[in-house]
Amino acid sequence: MLTKQQFAPLFKTLDIDLIIADTNGRHKGLTGLFRLYREIKSSYNFDALADLHNVLRSRILLFLFRLSGIKYASIDKERKELKNLTRKDNKVLKPLLNRFERYRKVFSELGFDFKLEFKSIFPQPALLSHAILEYTGEKTQNWIGVAPFAAYQPKIYPDEKMKEVIRSLMTDLSNKIFFFGGGKNETALLEQWQEEFHGSINISGKLSLADELQLMSQLDVIIVMDSANMHFASLTGIPVVSVWGATHPFAGFTPWGQPDSNQVQIDLYCRP
Fold first, then answer.
1. pLDDT, tens only, 190-213
2. Fewest beta carbons within 10 Å, which of 1, 7, 107, 158?
3. Collapsed DSSP state (helix, strand, coil) of residue 13
4. Contact 18, 8 (CB under 8 A)
């Protein structure tokens, strides 16, 4: 499995060889990409290649390996259908194939088929490390995660409305709120939220991704935007309530294993 260092924790419980692409260092740019190709080629003798990303970088790597005659398959991102779904007028509001089914089709093309029976990246409930327990303490309440941010503003439920949700949840003293974020700006803002909501705990910027995933696996539920945290949480097998703004579940990016009833949205002409 070829991935970036930041995503390595997603695969560490699997019995696989993990190849790390340092796209900001030794594997940056075309020269770095060719270096990565040579490093992989010298270490592995592949029977087939599955491109699950289908972007410029992965297509170049695939081209280099194809020169050796290796069997390959690439994910179909349905770009034309996505364009029809998101155009300004006369949108074609038709659900596209879920991303997980698209991944499966890649392996099917290579001769490998399987049932989509995945439950969690953890083979059993993950035990919380001392680093996590220093922030959380032992679990004696309902643990509710809130990840109120996303990469793009139109995906984000307005702050004041999200705070109304948090206030409502915190009226029940059996609930304990954990804030999850991403970037430095989000961490600073969530520190303010922690001050505002007495008893809440801001996790953003304090734990590694591996520890955040462990903590997520112990939550009773998490409220998220259409964001990376939505997908991270769904991979730990917990209920994920996702709030959809400018984007739409029809685009095929719904979180793994979550019922439609957990997707909060309203119909607007501009969506998606």
1. 999 999 999 999 999 999 999 999
2. 158
3. coil
4. yes
